[in-house]
Amino acid sequence: MKILVLNYGSSTVKFQLFDITEQKKEFLAKGLVEHPGIEQWMLTYYAKDKEKIVEIFEDVKVTTIVGDIIIKFLTDKKYGVISSKSEIEAVGHRVVHGGEFFSQSVIITNEVKQKIRECISFAPLHNPHNLRGIEEAEEILPNISHIAVFDTAFHSTLPPYAYIYPLPFNYYKEYGIRRYGFHGTSHRYVSNRTAELMNLPIEKLKIVTCHLGNGASVCAVKFGKSVDTSMGFTPLEGLVMGTRCGSIDPAIVLQIMARENISLHDMHTILNRQSGLLGISGISNDMREIIEEMQKGSQRAKLAFEIFTYTLRKYIGAYAAAMDGVDAISFTAGIGENAPLVREEVCKGLSFLGVKIDSEKNNSAVGIEKEISCADSKVKIFCIPTNEELIIATEAYNLLLNTKNR
Length: 406
Description:
Layout lengths: L1 E7 L3 E9 L4 E13 L2 E8 L5 E6 L6 H10 L15 E6 L10 E2 L2 H9 L8 H14 L4 E6 L9 H4 L5 H7 L8 H15 L7 E7 L3 E7 L2 E5 L20 H11 L3 H10 L2 H6 L5 H9 L3 H24 L5 E5 H6 L1 H9 L10 H6 L5 E2 L8 E4 L4 H18 L1
Parallel strand pairs: 1-6, 6-8, 9-12, 12-14
Antiparallel strand pairs: 1-2, 2-3, 3-4, 4-5, 7-8, 9-10, 10-11, 13-14
Helix pairs in contact: 6-15, 10-11, 11-13
């Protein structure tokens, strides 16, 4: 079954095409469509066994990306991997927030789309774009199944004591204010892959997965289920991130708003777009630039690096306590996969757990899958490139297979 996976963001669209059966999961092509300028889009595209290409498109409307760019290249005589769009049998869509409506992936219907709309208040920066992608793809690829795979679904196994906030209980009952968690497809993939690399059933393992990108979160995966995660009601809570502050004293927000006489909108911008690594360093939200400037002697870059790694170390320690132990720690996403110095600094402070990182292995693990722990480390440490798209495609395939077999 050929399944197209779409991941719509505010200014990018990621896509991958897979051929999945019960015996195989074959990657065929992938790409990233970016929006570098007005009415201009840039495609980075790679098909299996073919050269990577980059192409600029002028005067392309947002509503025609799937048809005019993605389908065009998937069916291109030189670069394509299918002869026509009719070969695509299903589309898997990443949806960031499913609220309490969805604890698993679902075939998209009008009712499902309405529930996704109702979750826009929870994820105003994400769900509108996810919904737009669904509606565009349905128009270009009608008469096939479209499946929604939710970032929040993997965290539906959190116990109430982990997801209920210590606020008046009616706020949860009336407005759904609770911990939802995000990056669920990534945490699921990485925890499953960790178990495979350890050659042990995930049902017997306690794993901490660290998804570290511009957005960052940690997840406690106990016996294959998410039992706690650092992001909360929104993706703002938890770790220090590229431009997001992570967890802070809520009274700080009230103080700043009162002293600066600023609006809710301005405060939202400060917390989400002007804080984190960027706010501390005053240099960049990119960890590569932070490390580069730190090594040149910038004290604020050094402080940003130290706060990032210190906060991450605290969460790992807390989740080891939450699970009554930890068997493995896995790092993924842009920083997790490509910043050995971050992994080394974090693991240095976890010796009380028996964590021992192998410096040589760690330094050589850049963007590749590799165990980076010492042979005598009580806790295994891994660098694992995430593959959210494969999880989405697999979810779509399994859902359709189960539906067909009923």
